Amino acid sequence: DTSASGMGLGFATFPLERALSDDFDYKKDVSLHRVGGIGSTFAGYKSRTGLVPQSLVLMGDLLYLVLGFEMEEEKQWGLFVNIYDTTKGEFIDEYQLNLDYKGQVSPYTFESMNEIYEKEGYPKSDWSQMLVSHWNEYKGEFYTTIVIDSDHSSGIIFKTKDFKTIEFVDVVKGNLEGSCEVASGIFDGKMYIACRQTWAVPYLVFIRYDLETGAWTNPYKIEDGNSRPMFFVYHNEIFLFNTLEEPFGRRYSNISKVRTIKNAHNGKNAPINTIATLFECGDHHVYCIYNDKIYFTATIQSRIHFGELKLKQFSPEKVNKKLLDLF
Fold it and tell me: Among candidates 97, 127, 122, which has minimal Cα distance to 110?
């Protein structure tokens, strides 16, 4: 999102073999495409706000960019898709997503998501921006969690096969104080979910959903790192990345292995095992795994930094030393 430069939402591509080289040249190595901004017309709708990028999914040669904005005439947010053809190097289609709630199909908007909350017996949200988590493929379908960017927003699991219509699966349980961020990752038929809470609540809610049976575990509170959660699967293990946010900033981020044993929620069987702590790595983190390497971006003082994230595991004493250093 390059709103500060007046460009609006930009889409950049660059070769990985050049990205980590010492002579990387932004002007020569990066191709930048403008998607749109305030007042732009996208998929037939005029935007009242900036276009907000949500997530990217690569299917074959096509890259699906999911984005959202407030539509001017409708005066509410909607979710849209822009398709980028990697072989042609250009966008080839754009449209609004449809939402399928138990057979009832409608355009995906703030109101249609709030209707699901109401019908499922959950509080409606009072703010309209929607945030989409990373998409995870499972048995030919892509799953995600979507939350409305407001307090008391539980989040909803959706799935899709074609990125034209996304289908309701379930409302996230045990997250009545949820707000802004609901991350999810799939491993061995289970969806692991970490939920940021409303302002000043100092923990994440961690919960697991069985994609085969529809069963939920009891929620667990992760107190060390209350914001910016994301999951990734690497070398047949699933990891949680989360950040400690305090009133004066984000002090550090943790990388933890997720324990996948049944009912791993108490004492020594807590659902995560923190293996490393990263200091001064900013916020707005994004990852991508390609050719067995983890690539990672972070925004630090309004600048986006990119590089390879090399996983290392430290002893519990070394990881927990950060707690002593706080005093």
Answer: 127
- Can you give the three-state secondary structure of the chain, one letter per residue? CEHHHCCEEEEEECCHHHHCCCCCCHHHHCEEEEEECCCCEECCEEECCCCEEEEEEEECCEEEEEEEEEECCCCEEEEEEEEEECCCCEEEEEEECEEEECCEEEECEHHHHHHHHHHCCCCCCCCCCEEECCCEEECCEEEEEEEECCECCCCEEEEECCCCEEEEEEECCCCCCEEEEEEEEEECCEEEEEEEECCCCCCEEEEEEECCCCCECCCEEECCCCEEEEEEEECCEEEEEEEEEECCEEEEEEEEEECCCCCCCCHHHCCEEEEEEEECCCEEEEEEEECCEEEEEEEECCEEEEEECCCCCCCHHHHHHHHHHCC
> At 80, which amino acid appears?
F
The predicted structure's pLDDT at residue 178:
75
Tokens in use for 223?
């107190």
Residue 231: strand pairing partners: 240
Instruction: Copy the structure tokens of residue 117.
Output: 């909350």
- Positive or negative: CA dihedral 243, 276, 207, 287: positive
How many Cα atoms occupy the beta-carbon half-sphere of 39 within 13 Å?
3
Phi-psi category of 145—alpha, beta or left, where left has phi over 0 and alpha has psi -120 to 50? Answer: beta
Q: What is the mean pLDDT of residues 53-66?
A: 94
In this prediction the pTM is 0.90
d(CA 182, CA 193): 7
- Mean pLDDT over residues 72-101, rounded? 96
pLDDT digits (tens, 9 = 90+) for 166-220: 999 999 998 877 777 889 999 999 999 998 887 777 888 899 999 999 999 988 8
Least-confidence region, from 3-12, 131-140, 290-299 = 3-12
